[in-house]
Amino acid sequence: MRIIIVGAGEVGFYLAKMLSEENHDVTILDKNAEKCQRAREHLDVLVLEGNGGSAQTLSDAGIKKMDMLIAVTSIDEVNIMSCMFANRLGVETKVARVRNAEYSKPRALITPSQLGIDKMIHPEEEASKQIKNLIRRSAASEVAEFSGGRIQVVGIKLGDESPIVGKSLQKVALEHPNIQYRTVAMSRNGETIMPSGADTFNLKDHVYFIAKSEDIPEVLRFAGKEQQPAGNIMILGAGKIGRRVAQMLE
Question: Is residue 82 helix, strand or coil?
C-alpha cells in the first residue's frame, strides 16, 4: 500500500517505521528540517520537506498516487486541511489526529465525513476510554471496544488460579455453552498464536477473548479472573484526560 504520513514527530516517525517494516511504500512529509533529517537517517522511507497543509505540496509529493494519507502533525488545522485536500485529489483513506473533541460530538456542526476524513483519532479521548475500560474491567490487562462499545476484546494472563489451564479451547467452549465468545489470539513465549479448538490454554499464556460487553464478566469468571468492582477512585491530574475520565465514571 502507498501511504503518505504528514508529520515527522514521534507518532509520525514510529508509524512510518512500523509501516515500512511491513513493506508498505511510505512517504513522510514535514516542514521541520531537523525532523526530516532524523527520518532520513533512521528510516527506509521517502522523506520530503514541506507544508502538509498545502495542496501544491501534497501534489508535488505524489498524493494522487497514494492509497492512504495519515495526518499526525501537532496542529489540528494542518491535519484537517491535509485530509480535505487528499479527499479532493482522490485518496481512498484519510486519517487525522485531531485533539479538538468538538468535531466528534454527536451534534457537531461539521462532522469528520464533511471534512473528508474517514477516521478521526482523538488521543486524549482514546486514552480516557482505555482508562475507563480498565477500571470497569479491572481483571483484564487490556480492553478494546468495537461497535460503539457493544463488543469488547479483553486480554488476560492465565495464572495458577485459572481453571482453564491445561484444557483445550474446544473443551472449555463445551463447558460453557451458554456464553457466546471466541478466543481470538494467544501470546506465548513472545509468539502470537491464532488458536484452533485443539490448542490448549497454558500457564502464563496471555489470552484475548472477544464477546458482547454484557458477556465479558462471565468470560473473565470462567477464566479465573473474578471482576472486582472499583470503590473509591482518586484521579491525580486535572488535565484533559483526568477531567474526561472523571466525566465517564460519573
Answer: helix
pLDDT one-digit tens code per residue, 140-170? 788 888 887 889 999 999 999 899 999 999 9
Neighbours of 220 (CB within 10 A): 20
Question: CB 29: neighbour CB atoms within 10 A?
Answer: 29
Closest C-alpha among 211, 210, 194, 220 to residue 140: 220
Give the count of domains, the chain.
Answer: 2
Express as a percent the part of the chain with pLDDT over 90: 63
Residue 137 burial (CB < 10 Å; 0-12/13-18/19+)? Answer: buried
Q: At 43, which amino acid appears?
A: L
Q: What is the spatial distance between Cα 129 and Cα 80, in angstroms, rounded to a whole number?
A: 23
Q: What is the CATH number of the domain that holds 106?
A: 3.40.50.720
Domain with 148 in it:
139-222
Q: Is the Cβ–Cβ distance between 35 and 6 less than 8 Å?
A: no
> How many Cβ atoms sit within 10 Å of the Cβ of residue 173?
15
**Phi, psi of 185, deg, nearest 5:** -165, 155
